[in-house]
Amino acid sequence: MLDAEDVPxxxxxRKRDNEPVAADANIEDLISKVMNQNFVPVIDxxxxxxxxxxxxxxxxxxxxxxxxxxxxxxxxxx
Length: 78
Known about the structure:
This protein is α+β, with helices and mostly antiparallel strands. 36% of the residues lie in helices and 17% in strands.
């Protein structure tokens, strides 16, 4: 039996891979992915991982754009 340290990470079976977006992706591409994933990995032009955007991040961004942030914060306090 192998020790965990000896198992290559790429050989570990996953339920699914979360599809990434490019760092310069538009909001529509991001929303389409975040609707089906709890988080979206972000990659650079060389396809290297540079970060994660969560569903919560997108909801907060959209609520600020719509001017709803204060209303949502008020509702959370009640």
